[in-house]
Amino acid sequence: MHRSPTLARRFFNRFEPVHAVTYFAPEARSALDDLGYRGFWMGYFAARSAPFGVVPTELVVAAFYNFAPERVAKALPAAWDIAPPATALRARETAAVAALRRYGVTDAEAAEAADLAAKAAAGADPGGRALYAANRALDWPEEPLARLWHATTLLREHRGDGHIAALLAEGISGRESNVLHAAAGRVPEEMIKRSRDYDDALWEQHAGTLRRRGLLDEEGALTQAGRALKQRIEDATDALAVPALTVLDDDEVEALFRVLTPITRKVVAGGDIPVSTPMGLDRTDLGDDRAHLR
User: What is the Cα–Cα distance from 177 to 144, expressed in whole angstroms?
Assistant: First the structure.
């Protein structure tokens, strides 16, 4: 079954906000703070890496490709002395459900989206996708909102693992990828520098590497070669993500877009997820509930 990779990009813009409440909703921050984790980033790395269990910090650094290793090491393994992975997992799911309810998403409207998204998420190939596989090994929740959130979490980690593979194939390190992303206008430079731990000197170091490859010009803008490389990465990411929908027939994909898109609109309207995020989300076609497979 051939489907255009652009379908995966439009699907990402619908499922990612549902998952992303776990980073931006106040319920999520409060839940992790209440466990005793110190600051946003300890809670972030604890909750997101919890599906791995207690593992060497180096494994989390490898899976969280574009973060500074030093930032990860500040959080792990110290977080597990405060609250173990199983506790972090319960907290992040409970908080996500609470946020979705506050946005007005009901169990009734979540049920069909949850079933279809779960079918896609559980049917994807885990080969080479460590963070997706770790999340897929978790027990599935029964509650529709929790099931929907868990499915979107699997889908976003499946896509993220594929994005890392695309970067590796082009010889772009995780730290260079942030500079490239900002140069492409996908995320504000100051925001990504702040959220991913760059001072001006470190940013310039990685920008210099990209300049020597002919990917950035002297002003830090993408060259023609840089634009072509960035597009290859994005296209490869979409191509690696679209097989997650293979287990759904065309009617099911259309149904998933029809029921998920209004939920995503509610999440976006909730106002917790910023317009500009490191994920580079596009909200421009959320008024369209169709997958356009026909």
Answer: 36
pLDDT of 159 above 80:
yes
CB 278 within 8 A of CB 196: yes
- Type of residue at 234: E
Could you tell me if residue 197 is left (phi over 0), alpha (psi between -120 and 50 degrees) or otherwise beta? left
Backbone angles phi, psi at 189, to 5 degrees: -60, -45
Nearest Cα neighbor of 50 from 59, 273, 39 is 59
Q: Which of 20, 10, 93 is nearest to 277 (CA)?
A: 20
Assessment of whether the complete model's pTM goes beyond 0.90: yes
16: which 2 tokens? 């990612």
Q: How far apart are CA 218 and CA 200, in angstroms?
A: 15
Cβ within 8 Å of residue 146, ≥6 positions away = 93, 96, 97
Structural domain boundaries in the chain: 7-167+237-269
